[in-house]
Design goal:
Order of helices and strands: HEHHEEHHHEEHEHHHHE
Number of strands: 7
Largest sheet: 3 strands, antiparallel
Shape: globular
Helix content: 40-55%
Oligomer: single chain
Structural class: mainly alpha
Number of helices: 11
Radius of gyration: 20 Å
Number of domains: 3
Amino acid sequence: MPNELQKLSQQYLTKLYELSEYGLKQEVDAYLVQSEIGLSHEKARPVITYLTDKGLISWECAVPNVRITTKGIDKMEAAKQESYVEKERFVLRKLYEERHTRHTKEFTPEQLAEELGFDLEEVTEIINELDSSGWLGGTDEGVNINAAGIKEYERTPEPPGGQHIHIHQPQNSPMVFGDHSSQSVVYNNEPISRIIPQLAGLIEAMRDEDFTDKDDVLRDLEIAHQVALANPNATAKDGAWTRILTKLNAAKATMEISGLVINSYPYWTRVIDFFSRHIQ
């Protein structure tokens, strides 16, 4: 459980990330960050010290500005991905739990968004991804969970309390501060074959884009795709998995350098999550 300092540090870093336009702006007025979250100068001092010592923010810029570091950006992006995956799980669970009471009536995206308290656009995107994975059925009017979706939901273990599923990238930690040395790790044992269609869809989507270093991104993604096709039964403990993740991270870094927002591209969140996830 994060303490007060860790909570305030999380709020500060989140606001700095937003004000920096998700890492695109080099510097942000430090006083603006404090005022946006209602933090006094006195309360800000330990927060600033904490984040600076963690290497998440830097003061190597014009006074009185502050900047979020690459490490800080990575932490925020890992937190966004974790939040998105949690919401996917909530949507699937909602459909699973009400499959008997609504077997003749599907959920519309609007109904799911309202009942879960999520943004409609995000729910629509989640539905599209779950459907592309073959876990949903229904009509043009709405969706329900199908047999494959039920199997997927029952296969994935619920964390204690059944409220959160934490997904982590190997080089990034989720948006939680403090000591996590006591956490256990269970590797993703799904075969690569489960994500090959989404990886192919991501490559096709990137072909339609026009940005700097596009060829480098496509090259890395295509190598990842070739390795996946050659090793369809490989899991997280195999070398092929690590090689694919290395290529995905290289493509991701190149896209970010070009100023692209990763989560705005089809299948990207699901693909990068699949190859990097550890369940805590």
